[in-house]
Amino acid sequence: AGLDPLARRILWNALLRTMDERAMVLTTHSMDEAEVLCGRLGIVVAGQMQCIGSPQRLKNQYGHGYEVSIRLKEASASRVTEVVQAFQQEHPSAKVLDEYVTGVTLLVPRQEMDVSKTFGT
Predict the structure, then answer these.
(1) What confidence score (pLDDT) does residue 119 get?
(2) Are residues 43 and 79 in the same domain?
(3) TM spans, by residue (predicted)?
(4) What is the 3-state secondary structure (H, E, C) of 65-80?
């Protein structure tokens, strides 16, 4: 934590050289770091191992898509419904995960979400 990009790369290279001949347990909150440094990942939640596997396997199995949270300035159930309908016109497979009077959270499948298009409009 708190390393500049050059120092982080130097540390990563040192760890990679060390790992050629031994196993290492590494804890991190950075998925980028975990993907670079680890052949197998475990995800721990509240002190319990939830899953273990290669980075690609875990992404395929658990990376179902993007969670998009939309917050409204003013509370209005009818406005939330309008927002959901408009969003689902652009992303027909989007599913509502949580809906409340001040906003909504939707899940959009990875293959349906063009992030640059969605956030550029």
Answers:
(1) 62
(2) no
(3) none
(4) EEEEEEECCCCCHHHH
The residue among 24, 42, 62 that closes a domain is: 62
Alpha-carbon gap, residue 103 to 84, rounded angstroms: 9
Do 57 and 76 belong together in one domain? no
The answer to whether the beta carbons of residues 49 and 42 sit under 8 Å apart is yes
Q: How confident is the model at residue 115 (pLDDT cuts 50, 70, 90)?
A: low
User: What is the DSSP annotation of 22-44?
Assistant: S------S-HHHHHHH-SSEEEE
Please choose, from the candidates 102, 112, 30, the residue with its C-alpha nearest in 3D space to the C-alpha of residue 69: 102
Q: How many Å apart are CA 55 and CA 95, to the nearest integer?
A: 26
Type and span of the H or E element at 53? strand 48-53
Residue 89 in tokens: 């016109």
Q: Are residues 39 and 69 in the same domain?
A: no
